[in-house]
Amino acid sequence: MWWIVAIVAIGVGAGLIDSWMKNKRKLEELKLGHLKEELELEKLRNENFILETEKLRLELEHKREALTYTKDPILKELEKEKA
Length: 83
Hints:
The protein is mostly helical.
């Protein structure tokens, strides 16, 4: 009689453990998916930062060129002397 109770208890325990492991596995898969999405977002942020930095560098270079370009011959001669 006790062996029937032991078999039922083992079966129920195995079922609970199996259910718990499936739940844990699903939770880990969700965490992995979340981490992959965060990694992709960080890659996009980094790419965006690089593009914005390059754009600002080009704008700054363009403004410097615009400031150094003058039509006044006296200022041109002074700039040549400095260089």
